[in-house]
Structures are given as structure tokens and as C-alpha cells.
Specification:
It is a single chain. Helix content is 49%, strand content 13%. Strand 4, helix 5 and strand 5 form a beta-alpha-beta unit. The longest helix is centred in the first third of the chain and has 29 residues. It is globular, with a radius of gyration of 21 Å. The relative contact order is 0.13. It binds pyridoxal-5'-phosphate (PLP). Pyridoxal-5'-phosphate binds next to helix 4, helix 9 and helix 13.
């Protein structure tokens, strides 16, 4: 008798949980994406500097401060629509913030496992978005192993910072917006590469809007984080022994294999790897702030540096779009400190 009552209560609870999951799933499928359509600004200073029409895709204005919410938002939505009851991220950077933000919007709990090197200010931002923060491991690899274990134990779904098809499709929305915002295909899109998710999204977007033959992608990295440029030069995936760059958001020791293979197949006429120094990236951040009154991470500065440094590949271009990918890991004090360390005046 007692046993049967317990079983009945268990079944009722299971039905309630099922109904809640179904409601969340339906809400996730119906919800608007968490990212914004960002402005495309014509830059007078950069256009004069390069001698071309330079446009800025202002993804630094996205919620959580970077383009990441486009793709990560799409992935969180798709995981929840497939029934995930929790999402788990292993990023102490912009991908973790985007995961927490998207999960809160959908009413689903998020756990973000961050390495011990993560600044307290980032943990505070994550908690403010309602995420549970677990500090584990000296570097991303260890945090990622822990995140995998947390996801398994809690019935959660993992959100990778750059290596999921749903994330690439979400990032591709930036090119779909460009197709509405520009009268014609740009000659080049300047972007940056960490693990390669943003780059893959741009390549997919170019195909979606039919610009793949007309628009070259300039894919920038800093010297100490040049895992894509080194892999393309070697013709095989290169794993960096360490990340030695101030551009922390570019700090994937190894890029996504799928993205690497795509770039290698397309060749340098379609995707051109470019490597700049930390000093060039930070100098670009400072100049961009002075000229456009906007603060971005050195990761984003690596792309701006390609324009400020007048790289050869941009000399024949008439219309150039810079993906201003942004980043929340910067403030005035940090920018000043990097400028001091690197001798930028
Ligand atoms: C994540 C990130 C990158 C790198 O993006 P990937 O998809 O890993 O290549 C660059 N800049 C900023 C600001 C980022 O947050």
C-alpha cells in the first residue's frame, strides 16, 4: 500500500517535470533570439586611413558585449528546444557570459566552469546573469573536462565556445544582416580567429547570401595565439604549447578541425590568415577608442590592426567591413596597463 502510494507520487512528479520540460521546450522554440541586429557604421577615420570605404559591424554592442551571443544564443536555444534542463559552459570569457545570458532568457539554469585564472569581475558578471560558477583547473582544458562531468551528472547539455554547428549558424546571422545593410558585397570582411567559430559563421553566412565568390575573409590573430595561421602554414592542425598573448579571447591552443579544414580547402584567395603583434592589437584598441569612442578587447583590436597597419591584402579593396567583435574583458584601467606594458603611447 505504502509502496504503491510512493510509486503514484513518483509518477505524478515525473508527469509534472515532463510538463515543465515540454513548456520550456515550446518556449525555447518560440522565443526571439537573444542577439540584436547591430548597426553597420561607415567609419570616416578608417576610410580615410585605408583609402577605401570602411564599415564597422558593431557587434561590440550586443548583450554581454561581444558577437558571441549570436551563435551561443542559437546553440542554447536549440539545446533547450531539444529538452536540455541545464546548460553547461567551460568558458571564463565571452562564451560563458553569452551562455549565462541566453539561459536566463529561456528560464533554464546554467553552470559555467571557469579556470582559476578567471578574474573575479568575470565571475561576478556570470553570477549576476544567474549562472552557477564553478572554479576548476589551471587552464581551459581542465575546466572543459570538469564541465563535461558536470553536464553528465546534472543531465545538462554542453555549450562549446566555438565548435558546434548551431553556433556557426548563429554567427552567420551577422552576414545576413550585412546583406540587408550594404548595397553590394564587400571586397573583404576583416575578422579574428580564436577557436574559429566566428570565422566559420562568416564563411557560412557568405554562402547563405551568395557572396562567397566576391568577398575575401581576412582572418587575424596575434603572434602568441596564431593557431590558425600556423596550422594553415603547416598544412596540419597545430597545437600551441601555450598562449602568449594579451588577446585572451583568441587563446585557443588548437582551432576547430572543421574550421581548419574549411579554410585549407578554400585557400588564401578566400580566407587569408594575418598575424599581428600584441602591440599592434593594443595600439589599435587605443586608436579605435580615441577615434570612435568605443572600448574593445585586444582580441578585437587584432582585426582593427589589419586596417590601421594598412596590410597589403586590403590595398586593392574598395569596400571593407570590419567585424567589431567587441569583448567584455576590457576597461580603461586594463587598456592603460596593456599600453604601458607594450610601450603604446
Ligand atoms: C570568442 C571571441 C573571439 C574568438 O572567436 P572564436 O569563435 O573562438 O574564433 C574573438 N574576440 C572576442 C571578443 C571573443 O569573445
Amino acid at each position: 500500500m505504502a509502496l504503491r502510494a510512493t510509486a503514484a507520487r513518483g509518477a505524478a512528479a515525473a508527469r509534472v517535470a515532463e510538463a515543465a520540460t515540454a513548456a520550456r521546450t515550446a518556449a525555447a522554440a518560440a522565443a526571439a533570439p537573444p542577439h540584436l541586429e547591430t548597426p553597420l557604421l561607415h567609419s570616416e577615420p578608417l576610410s580615410r586611413h585605408l583609402g577605401a570605404e570602411v564599415y564597422l559591424k558593431m557587434d561590440c554592442l550586443q548583450p554581454t558585449g561581444s558577437f558571441k551571443i549570436r551563435g551561443i544564443g542559437a546553440t542554447v536555444r536549440s539545446l533547450v528546444a531539444d529538452g536540455a534542463r541545464r546548460v553547461v559552459s567551460s568558458s571564463g570569457g565571452n562564451a560563458g557570459l553569452a551562455t549565462a545570458f541566453a539561459a536566463r532568457q529561456l528560464g533554464v539554469p546554467a553552470t559555467v566552469v571557469v579556470p582559476t585564472s578567471t578574474p573575479e569581475s568575470t565571475c561576478a558578471k556570470l553570477r549576476a546573469y544567474g549562472a552557477e560558477v564553478v572554479v576548476h583547473g589551471a587552464a581551459w582544458d581542465e575546466a572543459n573536462d570538469k564541465a563535461t562531468a558536470v553536464a553528465e551528472a546534472a543531465g545538462g547539455a554542453l555549450v562549446h565556445p566555438f565548435d558546434q554547428a548551431t553556433t556557426w549558424r548563429g554567427h552567420a546571422t551577422l552576414v545576413e544582416e550585412l546583406a540587408r545593410q550594404l548595397p553590394r558585397a564587400p571586397d573583404a570582411i576583416v575578422t579574428v580567429v580564436g577557436g574559429g567559430g566566428l570565422l566559420m559563421g562568416i564563411l557560412e553566412g557568405l554562402e547563405l547570401v551568395g557572396w562567397e565568390a566576391s568577398t575575401r575573409v581576412v582572418a587575424c590573430e596575434t603572434e602568441g595565439a596564431s593557431s590558425m595561421a600556423q596550422s594553415l602554414a603547416a598544412g596540419a592542425l597545430v597545437t600551441l604549447p601555450e598562449i602568449a598573448s594579451v588577446a585572451k579571447s583568441l587563446g585557443a591552443k588548437r582551432v576547430s578541425q572543421a574550421v581548419f579544414e574549411r579554410c585549407r580547402a578554400l585557400g588564401p584567395s578566400r580566407v587569408l590568415p594575418v598575424v599581428v603583434s600584441d602591440k599592434m592589437a593594443v595600439s589599435a584598441c587605443a586608436r579605435f577608442a580615441a577615434e570612435h569612442r568605443v572600448l574593445v578587447e585586444p582580441a578585437c583590436g587584432a582585426g582593427l590592426a589589419a586596417v590601421y597597419e594598412n596590410i597589403d591584402a586590403l590595398q586593392s579593396c574598395r569596400v571593407v567591413v570590419v567585424e567589431v567583435c567587441g569583448g567584455s574583458g576590457v576597461d580603461l584601467a586594463m587598456l592603460r596597463a596593456w599600453m604601458g606594458e607594450l610601450g603604446v603611447d
